[in-house]
Each structure stands twice: as C-alpha cells, then as structure tokens.
C-alpha cells in the first residue's frame, strides 16, 4: 500500500480549512496514518523545498511556510500519491479544476492551501523529514 505526505499550509490552518481538507481525503477512501500540528523552522523548510532552491520565489516560499503552524499528515491507499494530487488540483489555483481543493478554495499560487508529494520517492523523503523513519509508528 502506498503512502503520501500532505501538508495544510499556514493559510489553510489560519482560514480554518483543516477539517474540510481532511474530509475530502477521508471521503475518497484514503486512510489517515499520521498527523502533526507543527511549526516548520527554516532548515526543515529549505530541505523540504530543496528542489526549488534556484527558483525566484524560493525565499518567499520559505518565508510563507515558516510564518505560522502547518498541519502535516500521512495518508495511505492504493496509488495514494496520484489520488491525493488529483484531489488537490493544479499548483496554480487559477488552473485548478472546480471540485479540487485548490480549485474550490484557493486563488493565489503562493497561498495554495496544501502541499502533496509529487512522486512516491518524494513521499518517502518527505514522510521521513516530517515524521521520521517509515517503520516507526506514525501516529505517536
Ligand atoms: P507546493 O505544491 O507546496 O510546491 C512548491 C510551491 O511553490 C507550490 O506549492 C507553490 O505554493 C509555490 N509556488 C509555485 N510557483 C510560485 C510562484 N510563482 N510564486 C510563489 N510561490 C510559488
């Protein structure tokens, strides 16, 4: 069974959308395997978003994700990575289809509410970054 890393960003927590977002994953049939309300420090943010280090918006991205608490989660299911990304919608909310989280609830690419792993390899890396080794009990 596949696992994916999902994080409600500070804008989603601030707007009170954590429950709405969790409901969508539950209704799809994915299983919640771990969850943490936490603050990300700059070091963790720079590791998590390392692939974007050379992008012009990298500084803005790190500032944004570290400015307040996030809600980090691990969800499990068949093809969990692809399923989650289809529920989340395209990165730019202007291009995200209605019915997706970003299509329904967001209107700005920087404040796009939620992050989801883009591949199985990214999911393994991101789950370890935020929750430790996959073999440990994610819920504790
Ligand atoms: P996420 O899925 O968390 O992965 C990288 C993030 O970079 C992405 O969501 C966006 O929130 C952010 N991002 C992408 N393009 C831009 C941009 N042009 N300006 C600011 N942030 C961006």
From TrEMBL:
<comment type="function">
    <text>Major role in the synthesis of nucleoside triphosphates other than ATP. The ATP gamma phosphate is transferred to the NDP beta phosphate via a ping-pong mechanism, using a phosphorylated active-site intermediate.</text>
</comment>
<dbReference type="Pfam" id="PF00334">
    <property type="entry name" value="NDK"/>
</dbReference>
<feature type="binding site">
    <location>
        <position position="112"/>
    </location>
    <ligand>
        <name>ATP</name>
    </ligand>
</feature>
<protein>
    <recommendedName>
        <fullName>Nucleoside diphosphate kinase</fullName>
        <ecNumber>2.7.4.6</ecNumber>
    </recommendedName>
</protein>
<keyword id="KW-0418">Kinase</keyword>
<keyword id="KW-0547">Nucleotide-binding</keyword>
<dbReference type="InterPro" id="IPR034907">
    <property type="entry name" value="NDK-like_dom"/>
</dbReference>
<dbReference type="InterPro" id="IPR001564">
    <property type="entry name" value="Nucleoside_diP_kinase"/>
</dbReference>
<feature type="binding site">
    <location>
        <position position="91"/>
    </location>
    <ligand>
        <name>ATP</name>
    </ligand>
</feature>
<keyword id="KW-0546">Nucleotide metabolism</keyword>
<feature type="active site" description="Pros-phosphohistidine intermediate">
    <location>
        <position position="115"/>
    </location>
</feature>
<feature type="binding site">
    <location>
        <position position="9"/>
    </location>
    <ligand>
        <name>ATP</name>
    </ligand>
</feature>
<comment type="similarity">
    <text>Belongs to the NDK family.</text>
</comment>
<dbReference type="InterPro" id="IPR023005">
    <property type="entry name" value="Nucleoside_diP_kinase_AS"/>
</dbReference>
<keyword id="KW-0963">Cytoplasm</keyword>
<dbReference type="InterPro" id="IPR036850">
    <property type="entry name" value="NDK-like_dom_sf"/>
</dbReference>
<feature type="binding site">
    <location>
        <position position="102"/>
    </location>
    <ligand>
        <name>ATP</name>
    </ligand>
</feature>
<dbReference type="GO" id="GO:0004550">
    <property type="term" value="F:nucleoside diphosphate kinase activity"/>
</dbReference>
<feature type="domain" description="Nucleoside diphosphate kinase-like">
    <location>
        <begin position="1"/>
        <end position="138"/>
    </location>
</feature>
<comment type="subunit">
    <text>Homotetramer.</text>
</comment>
<keyword id="KW-0597">Phosphoprotein</keyword>
<feature type="binding site">
    <location>
        <position position="85"/>
    </location>
    <ligand>
        <name>ATP</name>
    </ligand>
</feature>
<keyword id="KW-0808">Transferase</keyword>
<keyword id="KW-0067">ATP-binding</keyword>
<keyword id="KW-0460">Magnesium</keyword>
<feature type="binding site">
    <location>
        <position position="57"/>
    </location>
    <ligand>
        <name>ATP</name>
    </ligand>
</feature>
<keyword id="KW-0479">Metal-binding</keyword>
């Amino acid at each position: 069974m596949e696992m994916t890393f999902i994080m409600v960003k500070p804008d989603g927590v601030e707007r009170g959308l954590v429950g709405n977002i969790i409901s969508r994953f539950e209704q799809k049939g994915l299983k919640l395997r771990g969850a943490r309300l936490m603050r990300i420090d700059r070091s963790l943010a720079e590791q998590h978003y390392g692939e974007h280090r050379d992008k012009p918006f990298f500084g803005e991205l790190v500032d944004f994700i570290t400015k307040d608490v996030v809600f980090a989660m691990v969800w499990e299911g068949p093809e969990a990575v692809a399923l989650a990304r289809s529920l989340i919608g395209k990165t730019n909310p202007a291009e995200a289809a209605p019915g997706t989280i970003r299509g329904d609830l967001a209107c700005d690419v920087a404040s796009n509410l939620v992050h989801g792993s883009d591949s199985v390899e990214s999911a393994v890396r991101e789950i370890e970054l935020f929750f430790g080794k996959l073999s440990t009990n994610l819920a504790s």
